[in-house]
Structures are given as C-alpha cells and as structure tokens.
C-alpha cells in the first residue's frame, strides 16, 4: 500500500507536536535553572534564557550536596555491579540449563518485583534499625540490589537466548567447559545487552526515592532527596529546584541516549521475538 | 547433544551454583521483610512505644471501617486503571506514528523514551512547577488564550488530573518503547499480503498489526499496572497525597499511617492488603497474557 505524501506530512506533524510536549517540560526546567529567584516566576514568563551556571555552582557548593552526590554514585554503581554479576549467572542458568523447575525460580524472581515497596517499608525500617543498617550506604545497596537482580535476570534472558547454541556447542567440542564458554563466548556476544541492563539498573538505583527517604537521616542521603528538602524549606525557590532537578536527571538522560537501542528491546523482558 | 546422566547431574549442580546466589539474595532481602509485615499486621504497634501485643484481626477491621483508608483503596484502583489506559493509548499511538517515520526515527525514539528513565520525584516537582496556579507556564498559556487559570493541584477535583498528566507524560514512554520494538520486529508478510488483497487502513491495523504486537503490549501493560499500583514518588512530590486525601493512594496512606500517625499495626495491615491485591491483579493479568501467548 503506498503511503500518500500528505499522510506522511500529517504523521510527521503529529510526531513533532508530541516531541514538543515531551521535551518542553525538560527544556523549561533547564532554562529555569539558568534564571535567578525573581526571573523564575516572572509573569509573563520568559521562554529563552542565556546559559548561566551560577545556580549550579551555588547548588553544588551547598553544605553536604557533594556528599549526597557521592552517596548516589556509590549506591548506584554497587547496585549495578552486584546485580549484574549475580544476575548474569542466574540468567544463564535459567536460559540454558537443564535444571528442573528453572521456570519456577525465574518466575519467583519476577514475582518478587510484584511486592509493593510500600508493603515492606516498615519491617525493613525496623529491621534496619535493629541491625544498625539505618542510614548506611550498605543497607541501601542491599535493597537496591534485591530490586535490580530480577530485572537483570529477565532482561538478559532475551540476549542470552539470541546467542546461537551452535556457537556454544562448538566451544564445548573444542574442550571448553560451561564456565569458560560462559565467559569467553556468551558474555562477549551479549555486551550490548549487558550495557543496556547496566544502564537500567543504574537508573533505577539512582532514582530510587522511597527507601532512600525513610531509611536515611544524615550520612546516607541521596540526591533525589534534595528535591524534597527544597520543597519543604522554601517552596518557592523554583530556580534551585530546577537546578537540582537537572543535576539529578542528567546522568540518566546521557546513559539512556547512549544505549537506547538495546535498552528498548530489553525492556520487553523477552516478549519481542526476533 | 548426548550426555550421560552423570554429566548432566554435574552440569546441573554447576548451574544451581549459578542460580542460587541470586535467589537466596532476593529471598533474604525481599521475602523476609514481607513475612515480618504479616507478623506486624496482627500487632498493636506504635512507632514511638514499640509493640503492645497481639491483637488479632483488629487492625484489619479498622482498615475496612476507616473511611480514609477505604478511600485510598478506591483511589489507588481509579488511578491505576486510568494510568494504564492512558499510557497504553498514548504509547501505542506514538509507536504507530514513529514507526512510519523514515528520516529522524532515531531522534524520535530517544525523545519519547527518555521520560520513563527520569527520577519520579523530579518529574513530580517539575510538573508541580508547570501546573502552579499563579506561576506555572501551563496556566500562563491558558490565560494567554483567554481562558481562566486552573488550580490544578490545590483543587480536589483536578488534583488527580494533574497526577495523570505527569504520569502519562512519563510512563507512555514505557508502552511506546515496547510497542515500537514489537512493530519493528513484526513480520511484514501478512501485512503485505493483506495489502495486495485490498485491506483498508484500519483493517490492516486492527486485524493484523495490533494482534501481532499484542504479546509485547500485554507484557508492558503487566509491568505498567504493577508499577502504577504501587506508585509513590510522583504522588509524594506532586501533590503529597492532597489536597486533603484527594490523591492519597494506598502507598501514600501506608506511609502516613506509619510515619505521621506512628501506627505500625494499621500500616502493616494495609501493606498486607496492598500486597495481596497486587499479587491477585498481577497473576490474573499474567494468566491472560500467557493464554494470549498460547494462542499463537
């Protein structure tokens, strides 16, 4: 069926309008971060602003912000690395082994993600307090790892399945064992999938808010919490809120753009069959 | 591949060692607190004073008789259904549109994908600013075309709409990226054959394309439903559950009961209820999804 030219144009117009809707809030936040206190809520608002980093400098030099930034980075990095290591092994076992009941384990991991975090917030809080894990990076890392492992397992299933059995089998014939094949054949072929999964885990941990808010007090706070602090103290400092917001979302945007191809197909958790 | 039973056994043992660390980790960190929640739900427990003992089902009776808590259950369902419906419509629609684009497709793919990867609190605060009655851009644009400004967040009747706006903006991404992946991986033969047979545009879409990408869409709807049901970040940052209790979902109510009213027992009972409800919903949808798969 030939697509008539005017249909192409209409299609494009819809896409552009939708793109404007998608981008505008981010654009608005960005230029607000370049404005000062008064300009931020001038009426009528100005839609263009010059690059101005003074808000960023004052935000980052605020007491403790660099600590929160460090905390966010540490938590996100460990909560990506550990689930990747554990999850890659588990994902391979679920995809390629002859274990009886492997589907059951796989489903169990997925079902653990059906538990609402709100439902386990209080017992986690109580357990953490009694185990001295309250307000520790270690505690938050544990929670984020448990959150990410199932997604790693489920995302990697599709990528591992895409590695042809014949390649693995020829490695076996050449005398490599399961473990060697895993490291030297399967993993290298899954590198794009691993990168995408790593980005997803990183973003989930970086953005994590509820546990971070309730299980920290002074030393383990993460960056998203700064948003709420600004809201409560001085609800009108929109220019600083915009600045904090941009700092928080910038890494996630960069990583998403870099891996969007594989991230997209991985997020169907195996439903897209190539 | 022909292996003796001994080799398979050894291989299986190795595979178990691959698998078990993840399973054990999740059991310890995710399941144990869940069991503790059950236990706590039967207690009279104040965050300030500690446990005052076992009180059986009293907490559960209280949550079903408390008007606000019942309201939070209703609001959670209303929001979840609205959110999933809206994001599915927008997500699939955008995927269809973007799939037809030849030049610049990658650009649109990225642009529509980014919102779901953003921090929920940032999205909430961002829209709180945009929808601000006197200072927000949206109201400015509305007043510029002659309509009166809307108190989006402060008005009980529009507060949920504010949430849905922000929520749809963010989460249509997820449905979009899955639907697009499905469309791109779709087998074009049936489509071309139908074209030759003279199928109309809407027949092509509803009878051939849509069923072809249904598995992917269903999976993404399952996850979207689960994530929506337990959504907390956007609610906390955009409306704080208000005004009053207009946007107080179960997740927010659980938080309030525990940390504002110090009532751990009630909070835990509500947590258990939320867990059971979400499990039922998830299993129900999954079952439907797997039936769809089996039809293929």
SSE layout:
The complex is a heterodimer of chains A (274) and B (296).
Chain A: H1 5-32, H2 37-40, H3 54-60, H4 65-96, H5 102-112, H6 117-130, H7 137-161, H8 165-173, H9 178-189, H10 191-207, H11 210-214, H12 224-233, H13 238-266
Chain B: H1 5-41, E1 43-46, E2 50-54, H2 58-65, H3 67-99, H4 105-113, H5 120-130, H6 137-144, H7 156-184, H8 189-196, H9 201-229, H10 233-238, H11 250-259, H12 264-295
Helix pairs in contact in B: 1-12, 2-12, 3-7, 3-9, 3-11, 5-7, 7-9, 9-12, 11-12
Unreliable stretches of chain A, pLDDT < 50, 5 or more residues?
Answer: none
Helices of chain B, by number, come to 12
Give the N-to-C terminal Cα separation of chain B: 29 Å
Approximate shape of chain A: globular
Description:
The complex is a heterodimer of chains A (274) and B (296). With 274 residues, chain A is an all-alpha fold. Chain A contains 13 helices and no strands. The longest helix of chain A is centred in the N-terminal third of the chain and has 32 residues, at 65-96. The model of chain A has no long low-confidence stretch (mean pLDDT 88). Chain B has 296 residues and is mostly helical. Chain B has twelve helices and two strands. In chain B, strands 1-2 form a two-stranded antiparallel sheet. In chain B, a hairpin with a 3-residue loop joins strand 1 and strand 2 (50-54). In chain B, helix 3 (67-99) packs antiparallel against helix 9, helix 5 crosses helix 7 and helix 11 (250-259) packs antiparallel against helix 12 (264-295). Chain B is flat, with a radius of gyration of 24 Å. Classes of the chains: A mainly alpha (274), B mainly alpha (296). The interface between A and B is large, with 96 and 92 residues.
